[in-house]
Amino acid sequence: MIHRQTLTQLAADLRARKVSSVELVRAFLARIEASQPALNAFISVTAEQALAEAEAADRALAAGRGGALAGVPIGHKDLFCTAGVRTTCGSRMLENFVSPYDATVVARLKAAGAVVLGKLNMDEFAMGSSNETSYFGPVRNPWNTHLVPGGSSGGSAAAVAARLLPAATATDTGGSIRQPAAFCGITGIKPTYGRVSRYGMIAFASSLDQGGVLAASAEDAARMLREMAGFDPRDSTSVDAPVPDYPAGLGEPLAGVRIGLVRQFLDQGLDPECERCVREALAVFERLGASLREVSLPNIPLSVPAYYVVAPAECSSNLARYDGVRFGHRCADARDLQDLYKRSRSEGFGAEVKRRIMTGTYVLSAGYYDAYYLKAQRVRRLIAGDFERAFGEVDLLMGPTTPTAAFALGSKTADPITMYLNDIYTISANLAGVPAMSVPCGFAAGLPVGLQIIGPHFAEQQLLHAAHRYQLETDWHLRIPERFA
Amino acid sequence: MISGHTSDVPESPMALTRAQVENIAHLARLELEAGEIPQFQQNLSRIVDFIGELERADTAGVTPMAHPLPGLAQRLRPDAVTERDEHERYQRNAPQVASGLYLVPKVIE
């Protein structure tokens, strides 16, 4: 079956003309359509455009041309601007926003020949850990549709897990690639801050946001990331450093690699079954010749409160642009300019976005700035220092991606803090700007569990390589929910 | 320190008053309906209480970190025109436009 093939296989088969892009696109579009009532993974499906792009890809391939991903179907999280296509960010605010330009990530994947099948559902403005804050309705977990897929990149994760697409773009501000990857049993990578351009990626928290990939395997993620990563003069924090050929560097042995198990990730709240899966995965790495030791990052417990100052502060500033004037939702019959601002924003944003804007407004307001915002930035440096020290002793850090497997829809919506604590193991990597992955490492009561792998700045190659070696020894990443097999 | 991941977290004191919540909403240019204010008051109080944990961290002599990459300096670009005037295309997303101008309610009487 076509849909069970990895992106790597599909790209090779397309190049060898064993399959056409039009065939692939038709097959995946049919799966998307059939899944939509159960999963709601897509906000927009761009079938006509996709078929036209597939025909063009087939012509290029027939002429012996075409980029590394020529004809490969993918999807974009609906916060990557796509020229001429609605880009909603999961919000009523941008329900009718048709982007006039392509995000750099979108342009690069297009240049590599990838064919876009649609825009994937997400938590509103990427604020959420369950995909329940989307204006377009929640996404459901393909392993059990009573459960959340995780968030904020829930649509991207559910689509890849149900093999509606071989891979999708996603973003991660506090765990939004890794947590849904763990909950849906797929592979996700959040690169180093600055590695992938933020140009055209709708902003949430600019010092934390980073684009990345959700895919079935580390090898597939490596192929996507190679096309997406690299310097972009249009992003003022893009890093001008060469991008390694990620797929080419996957074969090396792991002997001598020093792995640190983060002690604080085994603390309160870690489900024993998740811990068992993680420890079994670590044993596989030891068998592959890596050495293992416990490492302490003492300031990790402060990462969630620090994040919930820094991220809302940046969010309140970034989302000030939605004023009902130049684009986005506008209220009817505004009495005056203030009324226009207030009602357009109140009608356009959902409750969680309002909470974050208000939290940010509070921590930045006169009299609170030092106590909250500057304090959080100081704590952020302590957390970054913990990572720096750890990477003086070990090459990679490992631990669980999440405290538990996927939870039920509606079970954590009553109290925002309960929801926020879901990202307790993922947030610190964003604060420090270091790259991190989640890799499937087993099942807890029938639900997928993710192993988190964190590396020093710009160590994407080492992360992908370690994940790939692990995936050569295990088959967790090849498991597909029965209903979508 | 963070106390557990379950919903049995202790009830926080009502840290924010209704008037404070209304003022924050005004600063954020949001208009809350009267009926939804208590919910925001409760949630935001919980959040303020939660981020208050930072107070306990010893950060004496620690420089605030605004950006995750050490030593990254803001780049300057050559002072050259690189973009064309495409306001018509951009204004297709605008709620109300006339003669190339964005329209808003009257500001000056």
Shape of chain B: flat
N-to-C series of helices and strands of chain B:
HHHEE
The CATH superfamily of the domain at 2-254 and 436-484 in chain A bears the name Amidase signature (AS) domain
User: Which residues of chain A sit in consecutive blocks of at least 5 with pLDDT less than 50?
Assistant: none
Largest sheet of chain B: 2 strands, antiparallel
Strand order across the largest sheet of chain B? 1-2
| Average pLDDT taken over every residue of chain A | 97
Strand order across the largest sheet of chain A: 4-6-5-10-11-9-7-8
Order of helices and strands of chain A: HHEHEHEHEHEEHEHEHHHHEHHEEH
Spatial shape of chain A = globular
List descriptors.
heterodimer, A: 485 residues, alpha/beta, Amidase signature (AS) enzymes, eight-stranded mixed sheet, three-stranded mixed sheet, globular, B: 109 residues, mainly alpha, Histone, subunit A, 3 helices, 2 strands, 27% helix, disordered N terminus
What does this structure look like?
The complex is a heterodimer of chains A (485) and B (109). With 485 residues, chain A is an alpha/beta fold. Chain A has a domain at 2-254 and 436-484: Amidase signature (AS) domain (Amidase signature (AS) enzymes, Alpha-Beta Complex). Chain A contains 15 helices and 11 strands. Chain A has helices at residues 7-15, 21-39, 47-62, 104-111, 154-161, 178-184, 218-228, 272-287, 303-318, 337-348, 351-364, 369-393, 416-420, 427-432, 460-473, and strands spanning 42-45, 73-77, 115-120, 167-171, 187-190, 211-215, 258-262, 291-295, 396-400, 436-444, 447-454. In chain A, the strands form 2 sheets. Chain A has an 8-stranded mixed sheet with strand order 4-6-5-10-11-9-7-8, with helices on both faces. In chain A, strands 1-3-2 form a 3-stranded mixed sheet, with helices on both faces. In chain A, α9 crosses α11. Chain A is globular, with a radius of gyration of 21 Å. Chain B is built from 3 helices and 2 strands. In chain B, strands 1-2 form a two-stranded antiparallel ribbon. The longest helix of chain B has 15 residues, at 37-51. Mean pLDDT of chain B is 86; it is low at 1-12. At the A-B interface, α9, α10, α11, α12 and α13 of A face α1 and α2 of B.
